[in-house]
Design brief:
Layout (H helix, E strand, L loop, with lengths): L5 H16 L1 H6 L1 H25 L12 H15 L3 H12 L2 H13 L15 H11 L3 E5 L5 H15 L5 E6 L16 E5 L2 H6 L4 E6 L5 H11 L3 E9 L7 H8 L3 E6 L11 E6 L20
Length: 304
Amino acid sequence: MPHDGPITSFLKKKVRPFLLKANLGRVVLIPVRLSMALGYYTPQLKRTVTWAVSSREATNFTFEITHENCEYLAHTVSAITGVSYSAAMGYVNELQGDDALKRHVIEETRKSRMRHCADERCAFGRRLGWYAFVRILKPHVVVETGVDKGLGAVTLCAALLRNATEGFPGRYFGTDKDPDAGFLLTQPYRSVGEILYGDSIQSLRSIPEIDIFINDSDHSAEYERREYELVAPKLGSNGLILGDNSHCTDVLARFSAERGRQFIFFREQPKDHWYPGAGIGISFTRNMLAASNGVSAIGAPAAV
């Protein structure tokens, strides 16, 4: 890097301190501040235009997350479950390398009546964390409220299918008011999962026990709270709650504090997408760390 010339050095030593201290600097530095700020947002504006033209999505945006974000997610999963970082990252990589699932998502999207509002691609985003938790904890029952296309549904069912091959069968229940929701949930994933159509509060009442609960339905704080209150007595002492609304409300954080549960929020970082990302609110108990002595939170041998 070239050295500053005498004039540049003089300006830095004399003019800059003056501008920083003088009232005039407040005005003179406006374009400097504006340029700095725009440097952060201009790339996002370019991605916005590209996405608006090329994408079909209008809600529930799909995208990859950055490599660093995947690493942070694996560390988060490791800290909560007690498995090693390498084991948690192994499950993240396992899903990313599931070509059969990716083909399934693309093919079902292509032939669906909803193809006009869904991109023919398979990107998991924060659902990588959902998958890792299911693979590690080996739950008997996983419930997701709010299914939409069913990307979360097939992701969770893919984890349950792999668990079953290891001797730990489980079942997925999704709930949604929209009778067209869940078009991605066909065979082979439907063999371990089903969707209950109707109000999620009513559907949840029909499920006696839940090991992992994922809130992704009505995103109002009041409705979110109602779901947690209804699910609480159905969870085992080591049950896990994943909140898909925790980037918008603090309902799960407050619920966790009231119930003596731990809470961590993982923020996702989309790769090459305008959306700033959502995240995973994670409510768990200290008992889940029993995984560190060889037993997972829901009773299956822990991954190491």
